[in-house]
């Protein structure tokens, strides 16, 4: 198991600052060593304070390529767009000079857009330098949902991206495959709340990845995974 660090916080702002400092240090190291850095972030409510803290970090942002672990198949100005979330909360201040590579193409369907989005991701240095993942209480991560009809494909393919149509979700999604997420130097799993802490404990207690796809991240040996968990004191 590569779950290397589990850091628990009862202060959301402190978690955001510490995670931002760690990630910024790794991005700058990558820039110093290889001239550019790649950062993969997730959507949802959890990363907001972290995005704000990261955007204030004094690194060479013009050398950072930022992309998404997953995206809903909506226009970039839609309230459900992860690109909009990142644009409005991360690519601000110092981080405004980072280059953003989105996953939503102009195509009508995810399937039709996969090839172009995959081409776009070709611009990112690999292995990816830093990947920040969230998790749902159903055990999904990125858009690898337990109720995706093609989940097995997402877990096994060498393709960069997959189309995801989770039965539980109203919108089609595009997601990095497991192979893409694991082709990285460092993964952070960023979680908030008692429910997520319980879901993580359940994930760590068994190995069936189709029941809880997050197990394919926390149970693997290829890439280090550090968990940052914020939970209010009882
Ligand atoms: O649907 C999604 O949810 C997870 C977690 O979201 P949160 O609101 O509980 O933080 C997120 O990591 C993923 O990117 C997103 O597609």
UniProtKB/TrEMBL annotation:
Keyword Nuclease: no
Reaction equations catalysed: 6-phospho-D-glucono-1,5-lactone + H2O = 6-phospho-D-gluconate + H(+)
Superkingdom of this protein's organism: Bacteria
Pfam families (alphabetical): Glucosamine_iso
GO MF term (any one): 6-phosphogluconolactonase activity
Database matches in InterPro entries: 6-phosphogluconolactonase_DevB, 6PGL, Glc/Gal-6P_isomerase, NagB/RpiA_transferase-like
The EC number(s) this enzyme carries: 3.1.1.31
Keyword list, A-Z: Hydrolase
Domain Glucosamine/galactosamine-6-phosphate isomerase intervals: 11-221
Class in the EC hierarchy, top level: hydrolase
Pathway note: Carbohydrate degradation; pentose phosphate pathway; D-ribulose 5-phosphate from D-glucose 6-phosphate (oxidative stage): step 2/3
Any Gene Ontology biological process: carbohydrate metabolic process
UniProt-listed SUPFAM superfamilies: NagB/RpiA/CoA transferase-like (SSF100950)
Function, in words: Hydrolysis of 6-phosphogluconolactone to 6-phosphogluconate.
Protein name: 6-phosphogluconolactonase
Protein source organism: Gallaecimonas pentaromativorans
Gene: pgl
């Amino acid at each position: 198991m590569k779950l290397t660090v589990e850091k628990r916080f009862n202060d959301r702002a402190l978690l955001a600052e510490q995670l931002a400092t760690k990630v910024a240090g790794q991005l700058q190291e990558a820039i110093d060593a290889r001239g550019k850095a790649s950062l993969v972030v997730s959507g949802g409510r959890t990363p907001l304070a972290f995005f704000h803290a990261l955007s204030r970090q004094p690194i060479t942002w013009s050398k950072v390529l930022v992309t998404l672990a997953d995206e809903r198949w909506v226009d970039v100005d839609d309230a459900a767009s992860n690109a909009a979330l990142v644009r409005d909360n991360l690519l601000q201040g110092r981080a405004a000079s980072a280059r953003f590579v989105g996953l939503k193409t102009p195509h009508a369907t995810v399937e039709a857009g996969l090839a172009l989005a995959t081409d776009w991701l070709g611009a990112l240095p690999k292995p990816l330098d830093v990947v920040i993942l969230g998790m749902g209480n159903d055990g999904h991560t990125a858009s690898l949902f337990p109720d995706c009809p093609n989940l097995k494909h997402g877990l096994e393919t060498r393709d960069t991206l997959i189309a995801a149509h989770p039965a539980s979700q109203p919108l089609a999604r595009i997601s990095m495959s497991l192979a893409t997420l694991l082709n990285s130097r460092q993964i952070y799993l960023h979680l908030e709340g008692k429910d997520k802490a319980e879901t993580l404990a359940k994930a760590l207690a068994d190995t069936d990845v189709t029941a809880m796809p997050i197990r394919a991240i926390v149970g693997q040996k290829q890439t280090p995974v550090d968990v940052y968990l914020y939970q209010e004191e009882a």
